[in-house]
Amino acid sequence: MAVPVRDLLAAVLGVLLGLVMIAYPQVIVQVHTVGRRPRTPGPAGPDGDTDAKWLWLVRVLGVACLGIGGVIGAGLLNLF
User: Which domain holds residue 17?
Assistant: First the structure.
């Protein structure tokens, strides 16, 4: 039985994106806010710390991506 390449790619990329979002939420937030932060140093500038709520939001979205990728992968393997 041939596995659809598009579904396999969606499952693999979903799982990988989820793992990256869980392991490195700070990087995801920095990439998302490139060019949007003020250039002045300080709490709101590039040297400021990211609020913990944004890091937890990225982690939660990472778990969601991991779950969706897992469901797609399980569907490909006919586990349910």
Answer: 1-29+50-80
